[in-house]
Write a structure and sequence with these properties.
The complex is a heterodimer of chains A (123) and B (113). With 123 residues, chain A is an all-beta fold. In chain A, a hairpin with a 6-residue loop joins β5 and β6. Helices cover 0% and strands 48% of the residues of chain B. Chain B is built from no helices and eleven strands. In chain B, β7 and β8 form a beta hairpin. The mean pLDDT of chain B is 97. The chains are: A mainly beta (123), B mainly beta (113). The interface between A and B is medium-sized, with 25 and 28 residues.
Chain lengths: 123, 113
């Protein structure tokens, strides 16, 4: 069955860096795009970043552009989110979510989600 | 950016009664390929989001047939025919037609009266 297992969250000071990982199994990872979505405490869902199935293109929300980098390693079936220059307002639960080749490939299928990992930015 | 709005934001319902959530987009969600990329997600307390409905009206595998989606263009609706206790949570509509960014509605919190 499809699984997305996340790791890498924690507490970091403002201005610091953190790298999240999302390890996929149960499907052909290299055929599907991947997203990161976050949820601030008590708030709604916010799309953060998207990477194409082959890593050739990446897209970001304006709120993280220039600070966050999404990448993937199709040999390791893993997608990453490198977060630099972190701000207090980046505090959230971060989820990876799968797109789907058969959903057009780049329209946010969201058919599977990771368990979420908490990132807390605080001094 | 496409702005997604939902109403109501809070929906107390009686067990066994129907419930309806409205979602509106600031622009048409009809893509040039003819599809409308409007999804509905359910987030139960303490859990990750789960997709219920994709492309307006297609129910995901394993989702109860009490859930149905409808709509077109800029107006969409999620209906629960008979609310059960397990339906408590927050429901989000989300558009994947005009991006970036992909955008979610603010969420509708469903709980039991």
């Amino acid at each position: 069955q499809v699984q997305l297992v996340q790791s890498g969250g924690g507490v970091v000071q403002p201005g610091g860096s953190l790298k999240l990982s999302c390890a996929a199994s149960g499907f052909t990872f290299s055929s599907h795009g991947m997203h990161w979505v976050r949820q601030a405490p008590g708030k709604g869902l916010e799309w953060v970043a998207f990477i194409w199935y082959d890593g050739s293109s990446q897209y970001y929300a304006d709120s993280v552009k220039g600070r966050f980098t999404i990448s993937r390693d199709n040999d390791k079936n893993t997608v990453y989110l490198q977060m630099n220059s972190l701000r207090v307002e980046d505090t959230a639960i971060y989820h990876c979510a799968k797109d789907n080749l058969y959903y057009g490939g780049n329209h946010f299928a969201g058919d599977y989600w990771g368990q979420g990992t908490l990132v807390t930015v605080s001094s | 950016d496409v702005v997604m709005t939902q109403s109501p934001l809070s929906l107390p319902v009686t067990l066994g009664q129907p419930a309806s959530i409205s979602c509106r987009s600031s622009q048409s969600l009809v893509h040039s390929d003819g599809n409308t990329y409007l999804n509905w997600f359910q987030q139960r307390p303490g859990q990750s989001p789960r997709r219920l409905i994709y492309k307006v009206s297609n129910r995901d595998s394993g989702v109860s047939d009490r859930f149905s989606g409808s709509g077109s263009g800029t107006d969409f609706t999620l209906k629960i025919s008979r609310v059960e206790a397990e339906d408590v949570g927050v429901y989000y509509c989300m558009q994947g037609t005009q991006w970036p960014p992909f955008t979610f509605g603010p969420g509708t919190k469903v709980d039991i009266k």
